[in-house]
Amino acid sequence: MSTEHGRPGHTHRAGSHDFTMPRWPEAVDVFDTTLRDGEQSPGFSMHRAEKLQLARQLEALGVDVLEAGFPIASPGDLDSVRAVAAEITGCRVAALARARQDDVDAALRALEPAAKPRLHIFLATSDLHLKYKLRISRAEALNQIVSMIRYGCQHCEDVEFSAEDASRTDRDFLIEVLRAAAEAGANVINLPDTVGYTTPEEYGQIFRAARAALASHPEVVLSAHCHNDLGLAVANSLAAISAGARQVECTINGIGERAGNASLEEIVVALHVRQAHYSAATNISLEKIYSTSRMLSSVTGVSVPPNKAVVGANAFAHEAGIHQDGILKNPLTYEIIVPEKVGVSSRRLVLGKHSGRNALRSRLDELGYSITDEELADCYGLATAQADAAKQVTDRDLLSIIHSVRRNRSQAFADQASAAAAQ
Ligand code: KIV
Ligand code: ZN
What we know:
Blueprint (H helix, E strand, L loop, with lengths): L2 H4 L19 E2 L1 E4 L1 H5 L9 H14 L3 E5 L5 H13 L4 E7 L2 H11 L5 E8 L2 H8 L3 H18 L3 E6 L6 H14 L3 E6 L6 H14 L7 E6 L6 H10 L4 E4 L13 H10 L1 H4 L1 E2 L7 H12 L16 E2 L2 H9 L18 E2 L7 H10 L6 H18 L4 H28 L1
Parallel strand pairs: 1-10, 2-3, 2-9, 3-4, 4-5, 5-6, 6-7, 7-8, 8-9, 11-12
Zinc ion binds next to loops.
Protein backbone atom coordinates (compact mmCIF):
# COMPACT_ATOMS: atom_id res chain seq x y z
CA MET A 1 0.00 0.00 0.00
CA SER A 2 1.51 3.31 -1.00
CA THR A 3 2.26 5.77 1.77
CA GLU A 4 0.16 8.36 -0.07
CA HIS A 5 -2.92 6.43 1.02
CA GLY A 6 -1.63 5.36 4.37
CA ARG A 7 -1.67 8.60 6.32
CA PRO A 8 -4.70 9.67 8.27
CA GLY A 9 -5.72 13.27 7.74
CA HIS A 10 -4.42 13.26 4.16
CA THR A 11 -7.75 12.67 2.52
CA HIS A 12 -8.20 16.29 1.45
CA ARG A 13 -5.67 16.30 -1.37
CA ALA A 14 -5.18 18.60 -4.32
CA GLY A 15 -7.23 17.47 -7.26
CA SER A 16 -10.18 16.05 -5.38
CA HIS A 17 -12.35 16.80 -2.43
CA ASP A 18 -14.33 14.72 0.01
CA PHE A 19 -16.16 16.60 2.65
CA THR A 20 -16.72 13.67 5.01
CA MET A 21 -14.41 13.06 7.99
CA PRO A 22 -11.14 11.21 7.28
CA ARG A 23 -10.46 7.76 8.80
CA TRP A 24 -7.48 5.46 8.46
CA PRO A 25 -7.86 3.88 4.98
CA GLU A 26 -7.92 0.10 4.52
CA ALA A 27 -5.85 -1.37 1.69
CA VAL A 28 -7.93 -2.87 -1.11
CA ASP A 29 -6.16 -5.03 -3.69
CA VAL A 30 -7.05 -4.43 -7.31
CA PHE A 31 -7.37 -7.68 -9.27
CA ASP A 32 -7.44 -6.77 -12.93
CA THR A 33 -9.16 -9.26 -15.22
CA THR A 34 -9.07 -7.26 -18.46
CA LEU A 35 -6.95 -9.97 -20.09
CA ARG A 36 -9.28 -12.81 -18.98
CA ASP A 37 -12.92 -11.80 -18.24
CA GLY A 38 -12.52 -8.68 -20.39
CA GLU A 39 -11.04 -10.62 -23.23
CA GLN A 40 -13.96 -13.10 -23.07
CA SER A 41 -16.37 -10.62 -24.68
CA PRO A 42 -17.00 -10.28 -28.43
CA GLY A 43 -14.49 -8.03 -30.18
CA PHE A 44 -11.94 -8.04 -27.35
CA SER A 45 -9.90 -11.15 -28.06
CA MET A 46 -6.14 -10.52 -27.75
CA HIS A 47 -3.01 -12.22 -29.04
CA ARG A 48 0.10 -12.89 -27.02
CA ALA A 49 1.94 -9.69 -28.05
CA GLU A 50 -1.15 -7.59 -27.29
CA LYS A 51 -1.62 -9.24 -23.89
CA LEU A 52 2.03 -8.63 -23.11
CA GLN A 53 1.82 -4.96 -24.06
CA LEU A 54 -1.23 -4.48 -21.84
CA ALA A 55 0.25 -6.55 -19.02
CA ARG A 56 3.27 -4.22 -18.88
CA GLN A 57 0.94 -1.23 -18.73
CA LEU A 58 -1.23 -2.83 -15.99
CA GLU A 59 1.89 -3.58 -13.96
CA ALA A 60 2.95 0.08 -14.27
CA LEU A 61 -0.60 1.16 -13.40
CA GLY A 62 -0.14 -0.59 -10.06
CA VAL A 63 -2.62 -3.47 -10.11
CA ASP A 64 -1.97 -6.02 -7.35
CA VAL A 65 -3.10 -9.05 -9.33
CA LEU A 66 -3.22 -9.40 -13.09
CA GLU A 67 -5.36 -12.25 -14.40
CA ALA A 68 -3.72 -13.10 -17.70
CA GLY A 69 -6.10 -15.73 -19.09
CA PHE A 70 -7.77 -19.12 -18.95
CA PRO A 71 -5.01 -21.53 -20.03
CA ILE A 72 -7.24 -24.58 -20.67
CA ALA A 73 -9.24 -22.52 -23.21
CA SER A 74 -6.62 -22.83 -25.97
CA PRO A 75 -2.90 -23.55 -26.46
CA GLY A 76 -2.58 -19.90 -27.55
CA ASP A 77 -4.01 -18.65 -24.28
CA LEU A 78 -1.79 -20.97 -22.25
CA ASP A 79 1.17 -19.60 -24.18
CA SER A 80 0.06 -15.97 -23.60
CA VAL A 81 -0.42 -16.50 -19.86
CA ARG A 82 3.00 -18.15 -19.69
CA ALA A 83 4.61 -15.24 -21.53
CA VAL A 84 2.98 -12.73 -19.15
CA ALA A 85 3.97 -14.86 -16.14
CA ALA A 86 7.58 -14.97 -17.34
CA GLU A 87 7.89 -11.22 -17.68
CA ILE A 88 5.70 -9.55 -15.07
CA THR A 89 7.30 -9.42 -11.64
CA GLY A 90 5.78 -6.27 -10.11
CA CYS A 91 2.43 -7.87 -9.31
CA ARG A 92 0.85 -11.30 -8.97
CA VAL A 93 -0.06 -13.08 -12.18
CA ALA A 94 -3.23 -15.17 -12.01
CA ALA A 95 -4.47 -17.97 -14.25
CA LEU A 96 -8.05 -19.27 -14.18
CA ALA A 97 -9.08 -22.91 -13.92
CA ARG A 98 -12.37 -24.73 -13.40
CA ALA A 99 -12.33 -27.10 -10.42
CA ARG A 100 -11.06 -29.96 -12.60
CA GLN A 101 -7.61 -31.46 -12.60
CA ASP A 102 -6.86 -30.90 -16.31
CA ASP A 103 -7.82 -27.22 -15.96
CA VAL A 104 -5.76 -26.76 -12.81
CA ASP A 105 -2.78 -28.51 -14.43
CA ALA A 106 -2.99 -26.22 -17.47
CA ALA A 107 -3.12 -23.15 -15.21
CA LEU A 108 -0.17 -24.41 -13.17
CA ARG A 109 1.83 -25.04 -16.35
CA ALA A 110 1.13 -21.50 -17.55
CA LEU A 111 2.14 -20.07 -14.15
CA GLU A 112 5.41 -22.03 -13.91
CA PRO A 113 7.67 -19.04 -14.76
CA ALA A 114 5.75 -16.56 -12.56
CA ALA A 115 7.59 -14.76 -9.76
CA LYS A 116 4.31 -14.37 -7.87
CA PRO A 117 1.75 -16.88 -9.19
CA ARG A 118 -1.94 -16.92 -8.20
CA LEU A 119 -3.95 -20.02 -9.04
CA HIS A 120 -7.62 -19.07 -9.48
CA ILE A 121 -10.03 -22.00 -9.22
CA PHE A 122 -13.77 -21.63 -9.70
CA LEU A 123 -16.92 -23.70 -9.58
CA ALA A 124 -20.55 -22.60 -9.75
CA THR A 125 -22.48 -22.99 -6.51
CA SER A 126 -26.04 -21.84 -7.31
CA ASP A 127 -28.66 -24.57 -7.64
CA LEU A 128 -29.47 -23.25 -11.10
CA HIS A 129 -25.92 -23.82 -12.33
CA LEU A 130 -25.49 -27.09 -10.44
CA LYS A 131 -28.73 -28.55 -11.82
CA TYR A 132 -28.76 -27.32 -15.42
CA LYS A 133 -25.14 -26.58 -16.28
CA LEU A 134 -22.98 -28.91 -14.24
CA ARG A 135 -25.61 -31.57 -13.47
CA ILE A 136 -24.08 -32.34 -10.11
CA SER A 137 -25.41 -32.22 -6.55
CA ARG A 138 -24.35 -29.74 -3.87
CA ALA A 139 -22.37 -32.50 -2.15
CA GLU A 140 -20.51 -33.32 -5.38
CA ALA A 141 -19.74 -29.63 -5.92
CA LEU A 142 -18.40 -29.34 -2.39
CA ASN A 143 -16.15 -32.38 -2.90
CA GLN A 144 -14.84 -31.04 -6.19
CA ILE A 145 -14.10 -27.64 -4.66
CA VAL A 146 -12.27 -29.05 -1.65
CA SER A 147 -10.23 -31.60 -3.59
CA MET A 148 -9.14 -29.11 -6.27
CA ILE A 149 -8.21 -26.41 -3.75
CA ARG A 150 -6.17 -28.97 -1.80
CA TYR A 151 -4.50 -30.11 -5.02
CA GLY A 152 -3.83 -26.50 -6.07
CA CYS A 153 -2.34 -25.66 -2.67
CA GLN A 154 0.18 -28.47 -3.08
CA HIS A 155 1.57 -26.71 -6.16
CA CYS A 156 0.95 -23.00 -5.56
CA GLU A 157 1.05 -21.06 -2.33
CA ASP A 158 -1.49 -18.47 -3.42
CA VAL A 159 -4.87 -20.02 -4.28
CA GLU A 160 -8.08 -18.10 -4.89
CA PHE A 161 -11.45 -19.82 -5.02
CA SER A 162 -14.46 -18.27 -6.77
CA ALA A 163 -17.99 -19.48 -6.05
CA GLU A 164 -19.44 -18.70 -9.46
CA ASP A 165 -22.97 -17.23 -9.28
CA ALA A 166 -22.45 -16.65 -5.55
CA SER A 167 -25.08 -13.91 -5.45
CA ARG A 168 -27.78 -16.41 -6.54
CA THR A 169 -26.50 -19.24 -4.35
CA ASP A 170 -28.53 -20.45 -1.38
CA ARG A 171 -27.01 -18.48 1.52
CA ASP A 172 -26.54 -21.46 3.87
CA PHE A 173 -24.88 -23.50 1.15
CA LEU A 174 -22.67 -20.55 0.19
CA ILE A 175 -21.47 -20.29 3.79
CA GLU A 176 -20.77 -24.04 3.82
CA VAL A 177 -18.75 -23.64 0.61
CA LEU A 178 -16.75 -20.69 1.97
CA ARG A 179 -15.85 -22.49 5.16
CA ALA A 180 -14.85 -25.60 3.23
CA ALA A 181 -12.77 -23.55 0.77
CA ALA A 182 -10.97 -21.77 3.62
CA GLU A 183 -10.34 -25.05 5.47
CA ALA A 184 -8.97 -26.56 2.24
CA GLY A 185 -6.41 -23.75 2.01
CA ALA A 186 -7.78 -20.99 -0.25
CA ASN A 187 -6.33 -17.67 0.89
CA VAL A 188 -8.67 -15.54 -1.23
CA ILE A 189 -12.37 -16.28 -1.61
CA ASN A 190 -14.27 -14.50 -4.34
CA LEU A 191 -18.06 -14.09 -4.34
CA PRO A 192 -18.93 -13.20 -7.92
CA ASP A 193 -22.15 -11.58 -9.01
CA THR A 194 -21.71 -13.53 -12.23
CA VAL A 195 -24.88 -12.37 -13.96
CA GLY A 196 -25.04 -8.81 -12.63
CA TYR A 197 -28.19 -9.56 -10.63
CA THR A 198 -27.47 -8.33 -7.13
CA THR A 199 -27.98 -4.89 -5.58
CA PRO A 200 -25.59 -2.91 -3.37
CA GLU A 201 -27.57 -3.62 -0.17
CA GLU A 202 -27.87 -7.33 -0.88
CA TYR A 203 -24.25 -7.76 -2.00
CA GLY A 204 -23.07 -5.94 1.14
CA GLN A 205 -25.12 -8.35 3.26
CA ILE A 206 -23.54 -11.34 1.53
CA PHE A 207 -20.07 -10.01 2.41
CA ARG A 208 -21.00 -9.29 6.01
CA ALA A 209 -22.41 -12.82 6.38
CA ALA A 210 -19.30 -14.29 4.71
CA ARG A 211 -16.94 -12.32 6.97
CA ALA A 212 -18.84 -13.47 10.05
CA ALA A 213 -18.82 -17.09 8.86
CA LEU A 214 -15.04 -16.88 8.35
CA ALA A 215 -14.36 -15.45 11.80
CA SER A 216 -11.92 -18.25 12.48
CA HIS A 217 -10.09 -17.45 9.20
CA PRO A 218 -9.29 -13.74 9.46
CA GLU A 219 -6.38 -14.28 7.06
CA VAL A 220 -8.74 -15.13 4.20
CA VAL A 221 -9.27 -12.16 1.88
CA LEU A 222 -12.80 -11.71 0.54
CA SER A 223 -13.04 -10.55 -3.03
CA ALA A 224 -15.80 -8.86 -5.06
CA HIS A 225 -16.37 -9.58 -8.75
CA CYS A 226 -19.32 -7.82 -10.37
CA HIS A 227 -20.90 -7.80 -13.80
CA ASN A 228 -22.83 -4.85 -15.14
CA ASP A 229 -26.10 -6.30 -16.45
CA LEU A 230 -28.15 -3.84 -14.38
CA GLY A 231 -25.55 -1.08 -14.54
CA LEU A 232 -24.72 -1.72 -10.86
CA ALA A 233 -21.30 -3.36 -11.11
CA VAL A 234 -19.35 -0.44 -9.65
CA ALA A 235 -21.97 0.34 -6.98
CA ASN A 236 -22.05 -3.33 -5.97
CA SER A 237 -18.24 -3.50 -5.82
CA LEU A 238 -18.10 -0.41 -3.60
CA ALA A 239 -20.83 -1.87 -1.34
CA ALA A 240 -18.74 -5.04 -1.01
CA ILE A 241 -15.70 -2.95 -0.03
CA SER A 242 -17.78 -1.15 2.60
CA ALA A 243 -18.82 -4.58 3.91
CA GLY A 244 -15.30 -5.93 4.21
CA ALA A 245 -14.09 -7.02 0.75
CA ARG A 246 -10.34 -6.39 0.52
CA GLN A 247 -9.89 -7.36 -3.11
CA VAL A 248 -11.91 -6.03 -6.02
CA GLU A 249 -11.97 -7.62 -9.46
CA CYS A 250 -12.46 -5.29 -12.40
CA THR A 251 -11.43 -4.40 -15.94
CA ILE A 252 -10.13 -1.39 -17.80
CA ASN A 253 -12.99 0.50 -19.51
CA GLY A 254 -15.36 -1.99 -17.82
CA ILE A 255 -15.02 -4.49 -20.66
CA GLY A 256 -16.23 -8.03 -20.05
CA GLU A 257 -18.94 -10.63 -20.61
CA ARG A 258 -22.28 -9.17 -21.84
CA ALA A 259 -22.66 -5.67 -20.28
CA GLY A 260 -19.12 -5.88 -18.94
CA ASN A 261 -17.33 -6.10 -15.60
CA ALA A 262 -16.99 -3.40 -12.98
CA SER A 263 -14.76 -0.67 -14.39
CA LEU A 264 -11.37 -0.37 -12.70
CA GLU A 265 -11.08 3.35 -13.30
CA GLU A 266 -14.51 4.09 -11.83
CA ILE A 267 -13.86 2.05 -8.68
CA VAL A 268 -10.42 3.45 -7.94
CA VAL A 269 -11.41 7.04 -8.67
CA ALA A 270 -14.52 6.64 -6.47
CA LEU A 271 -12.31 5.32 -3.65
CA HIS A 272 -9.93 8.23 -4.19
CA VAL A 273 -12.47 11.04 -4.49
CA ARG A 274 -14.59 9.66 -1.61
CA GLN A 275 -11.69 8.29 0.42
CA ALA A 276 -12.98 9.60 3.72
CA HIS A 277 -16.35 7.98 3.05
CA TYR A 278 -15.06 4.55 2.02
CA SER A 279 -11.90 4.67 4.08
CA ALA A 280 -10.27 2.40 1.55
CA ALA A 281 -7.41 2.98 -0.84
CA THR A 282 -5.67 1.19 -3.69
CA ASN A 283 -2.14 1.15 -5.09
CA ILE A 284 -3.24 2.38 -8.50
CA SER A 285 -1.28 5.28 -10.05
CA LEU A 286 -4.24 7.38 -11.04
CA GLU A 287 -2.17 9.39 -13.52
CA LYS A 288 -1.78 6.29 -15.69
CA ILE A 289 -5.50 5.55 -15.94
CA TYR A 290 -6.19 7.47 -19.13
CA SER A 291 -3.20 6.12 -21.07
CA THR A 292 -4.14 2.57 -20.02
CA SER A 293 -7.69 3.08 -21.23
CA ARG A 294 -6.40 4.47 -24.54
CA MET A 295 -3.98 1.58 -24.97
CA LEU A 296 -6.78 -0.96 -24.52
CA SER A 297 -8.91 0.88 -27.10
CA SER A 298 -6.13 0.98 -29.61
CA VAL A 299 -5.15 -2.68 -29.09
CA THR A 300 -8.75 -3.93 -29.42
CA GLY A 301 -10.00 -1.31 -31.88
CA VAL A 302 -13.03 -0.72 -29.66
CA SER A 303 -13.53 2.88 -28.64
CA VAL A 304 -14.80 4.16 -25.31
CA PRO A 305 -18.28 5.78 -25.31
CA PRO A 306 -17.90 9.58 -24.97
CA ASN A 307 -19.99 9.72 -21.79
CA LYS A 308 -18.02 6.95 -20.02
CA ALA A 309 -17.08 8.07 -16.51
CA VAL A 310 -13.43 9.06 -15.94
CA VAL A 311 -12.06 8.10 -19.39
CA GLY A 312 -14.78 9.10 -21.90
CA ALA A 313 -14.07 12.03 -24.25
CA ASN A 314 -16.74 14.10 -22.49
CA ALA A 315 -15.72 13.21 -18.93
CA PHE A 316 -13.93 16.56 -18.62
CA ALA A 317 -15.73 18.53 -21.35
CA HIS A 318 -18.10 21.37 -20.54
CA GLU A 319 -20.51 22.95 -22.99
CA ALA A 320 -23.20 24.68 -20.96
CA GLY A 321 -22.47 28.38 -20.47
CA ILE A 322 -23.28 28.30 -16.75
CA HIS A 323 -20.90 25.36 -16.24
CA GLN A 324 -18.16 26.94 -18.35
CA ASP A 325 -18.43 30.15 -16.37
CA GLY A 326 -18.18 28.19 -13.09
CA ILE A 327 -15.21 26.14 -14.32
CA LEU A 328 -13.36 29.29 -15.40
CA LYS A 329 -13.91 30.80 -11.95
CA ASN A 330 -13.12 27.62 -9.98
CA PRO A 331 -12.98 24.10 -11.52
CA LEU A 332 -14.37 22.54 -8.33
CA THR A 333 -17.75 24.06 -9.16
CA TYR A 334 -18.36 21.37 -11.82
CA GLU A 335 -15.51 18.87 -11.49
CA ILE A 336 -14.93 16.42 -8.64
CA ILE A 337 -11.40 15.58 -9.75
CA VAL A 338 -8.99 17.53 -11.94
CA PRO A 339 -8.43 15.86 -15.34
CA GLU A 340 -4.62 15.77 -14.89
CA LYS A 341 -5.07 13.56 -11.80
CA VAL A 342 -6.25 10.69 -14.03
CA GLY A 343 -3.84 11.50 -16.87
CA VAL A 344 -6.18 13.55 -19.05
CA SER A 345 -4.03 16.44 -20.25
CA SER A 346 -6.68 19.15 -19.94
CA ARG A 347 -10.36 19.82 -19.63
CA ARG A 348 -12.25 20.95 -22.73
CA LEU A 349 -14.63 23.84 -22.89
CA VAL A 350 -16.69 22.89 -25.91
CA LEU A 351 -18.21 25.73 -27.83
CA GLY A 352 -21.76 24.89 -28.80
CA LYS A 353 -25.16 26.54 -28.68
CA HIS A 354 -25.24 26.25 -24.88
CA SER A 355 -21.92 28.02 -24.38
CA GLY A 356 -21.52 31.45 -22.90
CA ARG A 357 -19.51 34.58 -23.68
CA ASN A 358 -16.96 33.86 -20.98
CA ALA A 359 -15.92 30.53 -22.53
CA LEU A 360 -15.77 32.13 -25.97
CA ARG A 361 -13.48 34.89 -24.75
CA SER A 362 -11.31 32.36 -22.92
CA ARG A 363 -10.91 30.14 -26.01
CA LEU A 364 -10.09 33.10 -28.22
CA ASP A 365 -7.56 34.17 -25.62
CA GLU A 366 -5.96 30.69 -25.76
CA LEU A 367 -5.83 31.02 -29.54
CA GLY A 368 -3.93 34.30 -29.11
CA TYR A 369 -6.75 36.80 -29.62
CA SER A 370 -7.35 39.28 -26.86
CA ILE A 371 -10.68 40.85 -27.78
CA THR A 372 -12.71 43.89 -26.81
CA ASP A 373 -16.23 43.65 -25.39
CA GLU A 374 -17.64 44.90 -28.72
CA GLU A 375 -15.72 42.24 -30.68
CA LEU A 376 -16.93 39.63 -28.19
CA ALA A 377 -20.55 40.67 -28.77
CA ASP A 378 -20.13 40.26 -32.54
CA CYS A 379 -18.22 36.97 -32.22
CA TYR A 380 -20.86 35.60 -29.87
CA GLY A 381 -23.66 36.26 -32.40
CA LEU A 382 -21.75 34.54 -35.20
CA ALA A 383 -20.60 31.64 -32.99
CA THR A 384 -24.16 30.98 -31.80
CA ALA A 385 -25.41 30.94 -35.41
CA GLN A 386 -22.59 28.54 -36.34
CA ALA A 387 -23.42 26.28 -33.35
CA ASP A 388 -27.09 26.18 -34.38
CA ALA A 389 -26.09 25.16 -37.88
CA ALA A 390 -23.24 22.74 -37.11
CA LYS A 391 -23.72 21.76 -33.40
CA GLN A 392 -20.15 22.69 -32.46
CA VAL A 393 -17.83 25.59 -33.08
CA THR A 394 -14.33 24.44 -33.91
CA ASP A 395 -11.12 26.45 -33.50
CA ARG A 396 -11.08 26.85 -37.25
CA ASP A 397 -14.60 28.33 -37.15
CA LEU A 398 -13.50 30.65 -34.35
CA LEU A 399 -10.52 31.90 -36.31
CA SER A 400 -12.68 32.67 -39.30
CA ILE A 401 -15.25 34.37 -37.02
CA ILE A 402 -12.73 36.63 -35.28
CA HIS A 403 -11.07 37.54 -38.60
CA SER A 404 -14.40 38.42 -40.20
CA VAL A 405 -15.49 40.41 -37.12
CA ARG A 406 -12.23 42.39 -37.18
CA ARG A 407 -12.44 42.88 -40.95
CA ASN A 408 -16.03 44.13 -40.71
CA ARG A 409 -15.25 46.39 -37.79
CA SER A 410 -12.24 48.00 -39.48
CA GLN A 411 -14.24 48.38 -42.70
CA ALA A 412 -17.07 50.04 -40.72
CA PHE A 413 -14.50 52.25 -39.01
CA ALA A 414 -12.95 53.22 -42.38
CA ASP A 415 -16.43 53.90 -43.85
CA GLN A 416 -17.29 56.13 -40.89
CA ALA A 417 -14.00 57.98 -41.20
CA SER A 418 -14.45 58.69 -44.94
CA ALA A 419 -18.09 59.70 -44.36
CA ALA A 420 -16.92 62.12 -41.68
CA ALA A 421 -14.19 63.49 -44.01
CA ALA A 422 -16.71 63.99 -46.81
CA GLN A 423 -19.01 66.12 -44.60
O1 KIV B 1 -18.19 -13.90 -13.37
C1 KIV B 1 -17.68 -14.89 -12.83
O2 KIV B 1 -18.29 -15.61 -12.04
C2 KIV B 1 -16.29 -15.20 -13.18
C3 KIV B 1 -15.61 -16.23 -12.37
C4 KIV B 1 -14.94 -17.22 -13.25
C5 KIV B 1 -14.65 -15.58 -11.42
O3 KIV B 1 -15.73 -14.54 -14.04
ZN1 ZN C 1 -16.79 -12.66 -14.40
